[in-house]
Amino acid sequence: MNAVILTGFGGPEKLVYTQVPKPTPKPGEVLIKVGA
């Protein structure tokens, strides 16, 4: 899954676009797919 990660304090230069593993919901939680 793709994510934008904030790597520290600052402006847009601190944002990094990267791949992260898909989270697994725990009991009582849900995973929502967002589309645009």
Describe this structure in words.
The protein is an all-beta fold and 36 residues long. It has no helices and 2 strands. It has strands at 2-6, 15-19. The chain has a two-stranded antiparallel ribbon. β1 (2-6) and β2 (15-19) form a beta hairpin. It starts with a strand and ends in a 17-residue tail after the last strand. The model has no long low-confidence stretch (mean pLDDT 94).
Which keywords apply here?
single chain, 36 residues, mainly beta, two-stranded antiparallel ribbon, 2 strands
Sketch the topology as an H/E string, one letter per element: EE
Structural class: mainly beta
- Please give the share of residues in helix: under 10%
Average pLDDT rating: 94
Distance between the termini: 15 Å
Assign an overall shape. Answer: elongated
Largest sheet: 2 strands, antiparallel
Strand content: 25-35%
Topology:
Blueprint: E1 2-6, E2 15-19
Antiparallel strand pairs: 1-2
In short:
The protein has 36 residues and is mainly beta. Helix content is 0%, strand content 28%.
